[in-house]
Write a structure and sequence with these properties.
The complex is a heterodimer of chains A (about 400) and B (about 250). Chain A is an alpha+beta fold and about 400 residues long. Chain A is built from eleven helices and nine strands. In chain A, strands 1, 2, 3, 4, 5, 6 and 7 form a seven-stranded mixed beta sheet that branches. In chain A, strands 8-9 form a two-stranded antiparallel sheet. In chain A, a hairpin with a 2-residue loop joins strand 8 and strand 9. With about 250 residues, chain B is of the alpha/beta class. In chain B, the strands form four sheets. In chain B, strands 9-13-8-1-6-7-14 form a seven-stranded parallel beta sheet, with helices on both faces. Chain B is globular and about 75 Å long. The chains are: A alpha+beta (about 400), B alpha/beta (about 250).
Chain lengths: ~400, ~250
């Protein structure tokens, strides 16, 4: 079998450092050897293989941008992006696991936690021993988390949480949940552990998307946690939005991986599929589609790389992340749909990765800020006028 | 006693790379480069040796600065030191010169055991391990398919005339490794960060003049095109070809 080399029309590799390439290749090889041969079975069975989480920990990619002092690697955001790209070339559910663990669960502890919290949680989360999840979205509050219902109240030496979260990746399997709840009307972050009294995390079933990923509800019924489990250094929506910025950044790279997988499959299929005596790749309509895919992937790569360098030098603004997440997921979803068309009837089979990526990307388009919400974020940046809400 | 362990690693074209011959020379300008696959087993053997008996593992390669990458790969796996043997006046070295240069480096670091791949994926010569052992006047075990560590030395399993032979070897020794006796470990992000910071030590060596002159390179002959048979009426012809020409039935 030929080694997978990725789509690199504009020689992106020349812009990467040696260690970034080494990290990418490490994850690329692992995805080729362990994930791609097993992903369809995991999807059919609807489970996330536990050993994949452990392998991510062993490779050291969980929370890999966080300081080495806490058992992490202190690597660049570009390296993290490349990891997301390779993981999502395998499956969006796999990338989601890494995104949630690193960007949504470990990042808030590292950015807003006390030193004791960092030392207690981060090394075990980096190694994959403890799985984390992130509870922000509620059944009635998705794009509008500011109106969340979940509440925390002080009671002696404890906080008591009540409320429910929904669409929580890793919830059922998590050892540690970062939960956003209102304390005296202000959004605060709390660390809830799986055995805390009054906390449960039933799995949501029946998904046609992200089937190799655990999605859960988090239920807090007089859930009592000690006071030292509040994240001391952040108040308001800034907390969860900081996490989402990191996760959205990773998604902007991850989507490129899905798009590359679909492009690769479409190219191989159309070169080998004979109709009217010739490979269908020899026909102009098919070449037009392949050329469009290459064009969009290349633009997405340049966008993600430039954003990554800005993340690393600190010159980024959140709106740039919105644009990259929105654009790259959008192009990846369109490429998946187009690839399905190019595979003909074969495109619906799990012999090819197409339909799985397509169904996954429908979720990715919606989570971590919907496509439309990112348009509104950009609309506000352009006009100075917020269009999220108004009095009617 | 904590052993001083050396492992020889070589940068070769990816085994999936398409090798082109341009004029009368192989053109390697556009190939992807990797650590020679058998050297990955040697590297694993060296790491296993360190885990069993302690000591220090030094990865050594021979080549120009672009060969640093295989040393960084070895560092990411966990070796302690990385050394490249080279002199800017050198170009392509023959086997004799290569073995002399590597022997010099092994002596320089006072290694007591040297692991290497049984052959390199590019030349396939298989001469480096035994050649270095000869120059060091050390024991030599070639093509090992099993390895255990003893207080007095190592025990290796090597293919024998019939079956395999288990052989005890006192150190110092040079051991060339076949695949199959271990699964080479993969790097992780922390190892890669260590590799990023690691300095490659560059050593010079005295080597003799070469008596070898490569006249030209030629690509292997093209494989003959296959035959295509259409339709059921050709079944007898296919059977005849398989029986008489291919001798497979």
């Amino acid at each position: 079998m030929l080694t997978y080399e990725g789509v690199d029309f504009y020689d992106i590799e020349s812009q990467l450092s040696e260690d970034e390439i080494m990290v990418r290749d490490m994850v690329r090889d692992w995805v080729d050897e362990e994930v791609i041969p097993n992903i369809e079975e995991a999807c059919r069975e609807g489970h996330f293989p536990e050993e994949w989480g452990q392998a991510l920990g062993e490779m050291g990619v969980l929370g890999m941008t966080i300081d080495e002092k806490y058992g992490c690697a202190g690597m660049s955001y570009v390296a993290y992006g490349l990891v997301c790209q390779e993981l999502e070339r395998g499956d969006s559910g796999l990338r989601s696991f890494a995104s949630v663990q690193g960007s949504l669960a470990m990042f808030p502890i590292s950015a807003f936690g006390s030193e004791e919290q960092k030392m207690h949680y981060l090394p075990k989360m980096a190694s994959g021993e403890w799985v984390g999840c992130f509870g922000l979205t509620e059944p009635d509050y998705g794009s509008n988390p500011g109106d969340m219902i979940t509440r925390a109240v002080e009671d002696g030496d404890d906080f008591v949480l009540n409320g429910a979260k929904m669409w929580i990746t890793n919830g059922t399997v998590a050892d540690v949940a970062i939960v956003w709840a209102k304390l005296d009307g202000v959004i605060r972050g709390f660390i809830v552990e799986k055995n805390d009294a009054g906390f449960s995390a039933p799995e949501m079933t029946g998904k046609h998307s992200l089937k190799a990923s655990v999605t859960s509800e988090l239920v807090f019924q007089d859930c009592r946690i000690p006071k030292n489990r509040i994240l001391p250094d952040v108040k308001g929506l800034k907390g969860p939005f900081s996490c989402l910025n990191n996760a959205r950044y990773g998604i902007s790279w991850g989507a490129i991986g899905s798009a590359q997988a679909c492009f690769h499959s479409a190219k191989e299929y159309t070169l080998s599929r004979i109709q009217f005596k010739h490979p269908i790749a020899s026909y102009q309509l098919v070449q037009n589609k392949l050329a469009w895919m290459l064009r969009e992937i290349t633009k997405g790569q340049l966008l993600a790389l430039h954003l990554g360098r800005k993340k690393d030098d600190g010159s980024w603004i959140p709106e740039q992340i919105s644009l990259a997440k929105m654009n790259n997921v959008d192009m990846a979803l369109e490429i998946a749909r187009m690839a399905r068309d190019m595979h003909g009837a074969n495109g619906i089979l799990d012999e090819y990765p197409i339909m799985r990526h397509m169904a996954n990307l429908e979720s990715v388009k919606t989570y971590e800020g919907t496509h439309d919400i990112h348009n509104l974020i950009l609309g506000r940046w352009i006009t100075g006028i917020q269009a999220f809400t108004r009095d009617l | 006693m904590m052993p001083n362990i050396a492992v020889l690693v070589k940068r070769v074209p990816d085994t999936n790379a398409q090798i082109l011959v341009s004029g009368d020379r192989v053109d390697l300008s556009n190939v992807k480069w990797v650590m020679s696959p058998y050297d990955e087993y040697a590297l694993e053997a060296a790491m296993m040796h360190k885990e069993a008996q302690g000591g220090v593992v030094t990865a050594i390669t021979l080549g120009a600065p672009e060969c640093d990458k295989v040393l960084k790969d070895a560092k990411a796996i966990g070796v302690d030191r990385i050394i490249r043997v080279w002199d800017d006046s050198w170009s392509e070295l023959d086997s004799n010169q290569t073995q002399m240069a590597l022997t010099s480096a092994v002596k320089e670091i006072s290694a007591e055991v040297v692991y290497c791949g049984k052959s390199a994926a590019d030349t396939g010569a298989g001469s480096t391990g035994p050649g270095v052992a000869e120059r060091l006047d050390w024991a030599s075990a070639s093509n090992i398919i099993g390895l255990e560590f003893e207080d007095s030395g190592i025990e290796v399993i090597v293919p024998a005339a019939s079956g395999n032979a288990r052989t005890g070897i006192s150190l110092p020794a040079v051991v060339s490794c076949d695949k199959g006796f271990c699964k080479p470990r993969k790097p992780n992000v922390k190892g890669i960060m260590m590799a990023k910071r690691a300095q490659v030590e560059v050593l010079a060596a005295e080597i003799p003049a070469s008596g070898i002159n490569i006249v030209s390179h030629t690509p292997p002959p093209q494989k003959a095109p296959g035959q295509t048979f259409d339709g059921a009426t050709n079944v007898p012809a296919v059977v005849a070809a398989l029986r008489n020409d291919a001798n497979v039935i």
